[in-house]
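Shipment paperwork, digital attachment
Item: protein structure file
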Amino acid sequence: MNYDRPELLDRLGAAYALGALRHRARARFEGLCAALPRALAARLRWEDRLLPLALALPPVVPKADRWPQIQRGIAGAAGRPGWRWWPAALAASLIAIALLVGRFTLWNEPAWQSVAVLAPANAAPLWHLERTADSARINIRTVGMVSLGRARSYELWILPKGGGNPVSLGLLPRAGRLERALTPAQRALLLAATQVAVSVEPAGGSPTGLPTGPVIIVAPIERPT
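Attachment content:
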């Protein structure tokens, strides 16, 4: 497959998040995500979109006297042809519905564009950085195990194209996700930059406005193709 095609990675990310990729196909895509930041970004985007829907659905608990009938129905369906294929068919239908209702706007979220996958050298990713199309806002999602003493923090920096001092984009979350508005100056720099970096700083961030601790990540900025 040509994994340089964003639409292919988007479909694979949607299928993975919905559970439509099974067994070997799922394992292959997980391997691809580990090797290709664009694939991981597509997967994370779909997981972010589907999570609010899953949380919004109230749990349905059948009445106690309905369980024997449910169990008989499952046992009978398992012996009929096609039973093993219905989860994939259902997932594929859900993907098609999501795309028809509105690409990336199903839950009225901003149309996030991937900026960078932040990972230390030879290590698993820790954060995924996204922005809106106009770079007015960024979204930072924690995707790995972030371990750091409370006396320290991780800070995100724009590395201006052509040199110049790094410009802070604020502290990185230890868990979960964080959405942040950018100033006009930050927006312009982010749109022009080719790299972002992460440094270790005192709790609350750099006291000087510039990196003071070790830089643990320098990541290229992804550009729409």
